[in-house]
Amino acid sequence: MIDYDKDAISIDVGGRLRELRQGIGMSMRALARMSSLSANALSMIERGKTSPSVSTLYKLSTAMGIPITSFFREQPTQKDVVFCKASERTRVQFMRGLWEGLGGEMFIGRVEPFMLTLESGASSGPFGIQHTGHEFVYCLRGNLTYMVENQHYLLEAGDSLLFAAELRHKWRNPGKIVTNALVVVSGFSKDESPSEYHISSGLAAEEEIQSE
């Protein structure tokens, strides 16, 4: 099992929803109508009385025109120099895994490094990921299977993989121990945040597991 830092990944999703909704000037009634949820359900979520499922968050993010990961972290100020202390990493937990930003989400350039910590069986879900740019993967510990288009690659500690990220890809920890991998995405289109796709896929996998 992964030894999570509970304080680092404790997130008030309801409060974040209210902040985002008010930030775009959308009333609760309007959001309820556009997301096909009741105003009462939204009120319960915003007040922290109930926890929304991933499918509910997808409905809300679609209605608001924002990425689902917006509910889990604030949009940071972009800088041309980023110093990231290990204790201050942006962290998002999903079923059997943890995503950790390594400063790319705060960098003004087009490179996003992040860490994936995956328990046995953790995956990006059944749907492939596609985005612009190039993706570099370095397996630090355990085993990691990457499927790029129809080709499978099994990475063991010390192995690396580099590919054009526009090719449909997905990942999974097929082993029995925790896997740690460094992923670096570069050269992507302006205003695109490739790491969002990986976080969203991990969350989608969580929803799939819970619905089984």
Layout of helices and strands:
Layout: H1 6-9, H2 13-23, H3 28-35, H4 39-46, H5 54-64, E1 91-94, E2 97-101, E3 111-118, E4 134-141, E5 143-148, E6 151-156, E7 160-164, E8 169-172, E9 179-186, H6 194-211
Antiparallel strand pairs: 1-2, 2-3, 3-9, 4-7, 4-9, 5-6, 5-8
CATH architecture of the largest domain: Sandwich
**What is the makeup of the main sheet?**
6 strands, antiparallel
CATH superfamily of the largest domain: Jelly Rolls
What is the helix content?
25-40%
Oligomer: single chain
- Say how many strands there are: 9
The number of distinct helices, counting runs of at least 4 residues, comes to 6
Q: Quick one: overall form? A: globular
How many whole angstroms does the radius of gyration measure? 17 Å
